[in-house]
Amino acid sequence: MxxxxxxxxxxxxxxxxxxxxxxxxxxxxQRARDELGADAVVFTExxxxxxxxxxxxxxxxxxxxxxxxxxxxxxxxxxxxxxxxFPERCEGRIYNSAAVLRDGxxxxxxxxxxxxxxxVFDEKRYFQPGDAPGLFLLxxxxxxxxxxxxxxxxxxxxxxxRAGARLVINLNASPFHIGKVAERExxxxxxxAVAEVPVIYVNQICGHDxxxxxxxxxxxxxxxxxxxxxxxxxEAMDVVEFEWDGERVTPVKGPVDPVDDESxxxxxxxxxxxxxxxxxxxxxxxxxxxxxxxxSSVVLTLATEALGADQVEAVxxxxxxxxxxxLEDARAxxxxxxxxxxxxxxxxxxQSFLGLLEGEFAGRPWDxxxxxxxxxxxxxxxxxxxxxxxxxxxxTGNKSEMSVGYATLYGDMAGGFSPLKDVLKGKVxxxxxxxxxxxxxxxxxxxxxxxxxxxxxxQKDEDSLPPYSILDAILEMYVERDCSIGEMIxxxxxxxxxxRVVNMVDRNEYKRRQAPPGVRITRRAFGRDRRYPITxxxxxxxx
Length: 543
Known about the structure:
Elements: E1 2-10, H1 18-34, E2 40-42, H2 60-76, E3 81-90, E4 93-102, E5 105-111, E6 134-138, E7 141-147, H3 156-162, E8 167-172, H4 180-195, E9 199-203, E10 205-208, E11 211-214, E12 218-220, E13 226-229, E14 236-244, E15 249-251, H5 262-280, E16 286-289, H6 294-307, E17 312-316, H7 324-337, E18 340-343, H8 347-356, H9 368-389, E19 392-393, H10 399-404, H11 425-435, H12 444-448, H13 468-480, H14 485-490, H15 495-507, H16 509-513
Parallel strand pairs: 1-2, 2-3, 7-8, 8-9, 16-17, 16-19, 17-18
Antiparallel strand pairs: 1-14, 3-4, 4-5, 6-7, 9-12, 10-11, 12-13, 14-15
């Protein structure tokens, strides 16, 4: 009976930081060999370059640097088999490749077969597909190699097994959305049902612009049971042992980390995204406008968890319409979190702008214009603090608001990153309850009071919007599932309400195009996922 010890390296890479990524890979390989006693270590898809490198792949100097990075790993690591992903340029073509390295030589290069070109993926823009099976011996065991999408489709895994593989390794950079762990494991289970071999599935963790990668690497045996799973949203490396009797490979059951529930996974995704976006882009912490409302309270709490209280600044910018309870709740939350907190009233700036525009607006009634001026006063203050102290401005709008344009360009939309951009309002409340699970950090009144922009007397969100319970359900169908008006009416929504929401969504594309990037947590987020034209004459009908 032969035994094989294989380390799964679930690491956080930075796109374009080739030297840093290589150093991390080399250090992890040496640790796997020396401390964990591993015979092999498996890294993730395009680990050398970071994923996704996008149009960096069009630069010859970038590809040359990636090749040098692979060569550095080859020269630096011995005594252990290394499986690692990198972008390969060969004879004028670019491939999404994986290399098997051992004692200074390249044993195998495998080129990804299936190139995803949907949702957030556009790999066909850059890569050519491979077609040859990846097969090599690892401790005497015939092992098949595949990359990410290859395991979601019939073909590459079965090809490896026909060539003799008794164990399959799959390198991944699979981005998170709600429920993604179950989807991945179901896809691997489907391949195993046909191929009847165990699979090692290794996924990266990191925040990269709008995308967040959640790890949750796992090993599944030939019966489709998960026998090992690494944690979600954390760097981790663990060894899984395999037994080989000359015919079958059997993984030894190890720790199986649990899968987070929805609110926990959203919170962890947002925390990781804030941390990586802030630190990788070299900001000196973050600043945000704290209103005493639910959205800014949730963002402040998550930002503090991501960066620590000393890296977070909250600014309350009251106007003549700010309720006393908003001031009290904002102060209480800031005290609970221990963050830097200041109050900068906007009334002097607001009065100045009204004075400047008095002649221009003569004879015109007060309307949304004056409301937006208040929001823009706040945006100016936050951006000034950002410029002066190098802090990243976090905008605090949610997906419900961004969908229907209930936000002010250059006002509350100002900022460099939008943590709740893909979180519907109902899920924001669920996040607040989750964040209060141990103790009441967010004051109860913030959660229970009716939401308000506080830009006009006695203002409530539902003065301008449908109830969030209805709005969110329509948005989930229209934005995330591309349902027609007829389908939404058939689902029980009133026609006038559906038409109202659809019209608001469609006419506010120009605002969303100017919004900061935000964390993708659904399978259909604004940005890389949902790409609609701004100038758009299509008006969907009922059928």
